[in-house]
From TrEMBL:
Lineage: Bacteria, Pseudomonadati, Pseudomonadota, Alphaproteobacteria, Acetobacterales
Superkingdom field: Bacteria
Pfam family, one: Asp_protease_2
One MF annotation (Gene Ontology) recorded for this entry: aspartic-type endopeptidase activity
UniProt keywords, alphabetically: Hydrolase, Protease
UniProt GO BP: proteolysis
Domain Peptidase A2: 84-121
Name of this protein: Retroviral-like aspartic protease family protein
UniProt xrefs under InterPro entries: Aspartic_peptidase_AS, Peptidase_A2_cat, Peptidase_aspartic_dom_sf, Retropepsin-like_bacterial
Organism of this sequence: Nguyenibacter vanlangensis
């Protein structure tokens, strides 16, 4: 398959953005950030909206290098000049920083708080402000984070301190190119193509934005419709037991599958089984014999996780409520949703797969 990035001219990448300080208005925050980005871009590109031929303008808030090869994407950033690492979590309604990081970096509290719905339950986070958030080539100002969760570990010598959620991402068009270790945060105007930096065949699937930023998409599991949230913060695609039953897999069959535990930002643990279904269809692309986790999450939908994003190029347009997908592998031999398992007895715990998975995202709607 011939899929390439176009050699595309972007506007000035040193775009600085500001966000509102009112966490209860997540959609308003995203809208104001998008509006500010547009104003800055139009100031940089003279005549972009003046009379005459329409010009295709692509700008970026940041071009972020993805630091890891598996699981949820992790990117490098800076908080008030201090290098740190963040998860990218399209399933989280609000961006989060850990209590330890908030204290160590002396982030000021606003006196406000936000509810955070996790896959295992609900928690509450106080809100802090980051004065300068470095995003590769761009900088965001006065960015709000909820204080919650724990993000142990380091990557590339940097501490993982939190996650970027929907209140931040929805102001842009996030473009995931995880096979190339790249995440771009674009704004697009005046372009005939919805994916102007791409070349090659592209599939489109409709999405629905629920709440402020939840990306809902219908997929077909063994031919049966499943409502899923596109969730880069979930290391693995997860469905509910009811979805498995509708797809012809009952509890007795699941009991013979490898199993382990998952947990979310709320730290509640729950058992999950790993089952190999017949097929999973996303858009027009059908993935055969996918390994999918089945778990009784405290949410009412499935999670289409980072195992999908890791092997496909995905462009998310919150504005038009569409997602564009470039499948990078032929159906035969496509690694999407594939896991190499050691040969183990039935129902044996599999610490190398489920138990070792990173925390499932907040998956808040």
């Amino acid at each position: 398959m011939n899929h390439e990035r176009k050699n595309f001219r972007l506007t000035d990448r040193a775009v600085k953005a500001a966000t509102t300080r009112r966490p209860s208005a997540g959609r308003a925050m995203a809208g104001r950030l998008a509006c500010l980005l547009t104003c800055l871009v139009l100031g940089l590109v003279q005549g972009a909206c003046s009379s005459g031929p329409r010009r295709c303008v692509v700008s970026t808030l940041g071009d972020l290098k993805v630091m890891n090869d598996v699981g949820q994407p992790i990117v490098r950033a800076t908080i008030n000049g201090t290098p740190v690492a963040f998860l990218i979590d399209t399933g989280a309604a609000f961006s989060i920083v850990s209590p330890e990081a908030a204290e160590a970096l002396r982030l000021p509290y606003t006196g406000q708080f936000v509810p955070i719905q996790g896959v295992g339950g609900q928690t509450v986070g106080n809100v802090v402000t980051v004065d300068r958030l470095g995003l590769g080539s761009g900088t965001a100002r006065d960015t709000l984070f909820a204080v919650a969760g724990h993000f142990p570990g380091h990557i590339g010598g940097l501490p993982v301190v939190g996650l970027f959620g929907g209140n931040f991402l929805a102001a842009t068009e996030p473009v995931f190119d995880l096979p190339a270790h790249q995440l771009d945060l674009y704004t697009v105007s005046g372009c005939d193509s919805p994916t102007p930096t791409w070349s090659g065949p592209t599939d489109m699937a409709p999405i629905e934005i629920e709440g402020d930023s939840a990306i809902m998409i219908d997929v077909l599991l063994n031919g049966h419709r499943v409502s899923a949230q596109l969730d880069s913060g979930a290391g693995h695609t997860v469905i509910l037991p009811g979805d498995a039953r509708h797809a012809g897999v009952d509890r007795a069959r699941l009991s013979q599958d490898p199993h382990g535990h998952m947990h979310g930002v709320d730290d509640n643990r729950f058992e999950a089984h790993l089952h190999r279904f017949d097929s999973l269809q996303v858009g027009h692309a059908i993935y055969y014999k996918p390994w999918i986790a089945v778990a009784p999450m405290e949410i009412d939908h499935a999670l289409l996780g980072a195992d999908f994003l890791r092997h496909n190029r995905v462009w998310i347009s919150y504005r038009t409520q569409r997602v564009y997908i470039q499948r990078l592998h032929a159906p035969d031999g496509d690694p999407t949703f594939q896991i190499r398992l050691r040969r183990l007895p039935p129902a044996h715990p599999v610490p190398a797969t489920l138990s070792a998975l990173p925390p499932v995202s907040t998956a808040s709607r």
